[in-house]
Amino acid sequence: MDASTKNVSVGTVETRGIEPVPDSERHGHAGQMFWTWFAANISILGLPLGATLVAFRGLNIWQAALVAVVGAFGSFALVGALSLAGKKGGAPALTLSRAVFGQRGNAGPTLVSWLSRVGWETITTTTAAYALLALLGVAFDVDRNNFLTVLCLLVFIACTLLISGLGHATIMWINKWATVLFGVLNLVVMGFLVATVDWSKVLATPAGPTSGVVAGIGFIAAGTGIGWANAGADYARYLPRAIPGRRLITASAFGAGIPLVLLISLGSLLTAGDPSLATSSDPVSAINAMLPSWMAIPYLIAAFGGLLMSNHLSTYSAGLTMITLGLRVPRAWAVVIDIVLMFLGGIYFMLIADDFYGPFSAFLTLLAVPISAWIGVIAVDMMRGRDYDPDGLMDTSRTSRYWYTGGFRLPAVLAWVASIVSGLLFTTAGPGSDDVWFAGPLADTWFGANGLGWAVAIVVGGAVYAAFGGRGRPTSTPAPSPALEETVR
After folding, report:
1. How far apart are the C-alpha atoms of 81 and 17, rounded to whole Å?
2. 0.85 exceeded by the pTM?
3. Beta strand 428-429 with 438-439: parallel, antiparallel or unpaired?
4. Could you say which of 246, 277, 419, 455 would form a disulfide bridge with 373 (CB–CB 3.0 to 4.6 Å)?
């Protein structure tokens, strides 16, 4: 077997790129998805999400907790459902997407997905560098300066490269054990943060409007599961086909839902008593200021580690997505190229831009629409029972089974474009109410006012594709045996 297609063990470089994993190399169990999505969501970025629900959506703590449960568990149940395609086809999500959109038509969704990954990585890297700067200040009384800022960015990026560069087996191992370590640290920190809550203000906060709850669910879903929906298959592709689909969905929902509900609820609690977290340009320092001085070092270590757990997953997926786009380099080198862009983004956020959460919120809002459009098309295609031809996925020439019409599968591509347009009609995005980057003509309607442009995109994409997509061009691959049939049992 060629080295480029061999599976590797923990601590060695994964040489497989986007080639489908054969059944002989499948291994693992559904529980791996629990640790994968737990790792992706133990970072402190969940706290400002909760802060936003109270400060900008007007919710009280009970409404914020409800929003966290529905938004987090629901969106990651969707991530788990979409990851079933990886178990079935053995390839990354955007590589499998070639079968739906065509070899050329898949370029649009793949490019958007890559931009999403780079954006998340930049935000995570920036926050982690803030944590490391604060740690140096507390431990060694070192003042922040431009040199230290760049150094902290490089340290975090080097840690990300070490894990993501080694690849899938190492990531799966680290997800479990490092998550336990940083998860416990986070629980300790959260316990002390709860002690700082001004309960009189929290309990006196009136309930917000129902529209705020609806908008909050949309915001949390868009900021958590929707952002990972196009990466689930990347981690499920090594799993045996015979694993029941319902186990993957359950593991994904609970793996992400547990830490997210805790963090979002805590962010809501803190902000109900002190709104500074929601408006801080440096969330790490804002949270650190709420803790006793002796808790600073454990907190900052937990913050750094949690962000690293999320970032190495995003970077791994970004490397696979770049290869799917046509970058002809080994997977590990694709990761290297990605972290260079991540570093430049971190420099911009930390040394040039003067606002952190404004661009963060606008970024989530805008990219959620085309990603949601892709979800709608892919979900309907999966429900129709598509089989994936490994040779067809990797053949990008005119002889490919997935070349269709000039490289485009027109029903899927047109459904995707139509759903993006529909979603943007209801979307408003910008760093703040006084600085709007984009506002669709229907942004003042109920769907628009409640931030549901992404949900419109899912529904329209799925409906248009269901109406005009047919079943696609059949492949010559044999039907799977009943024991391996892709079902959610």
Report:
1. 23
2. yes
3. antiparallel
4. 419
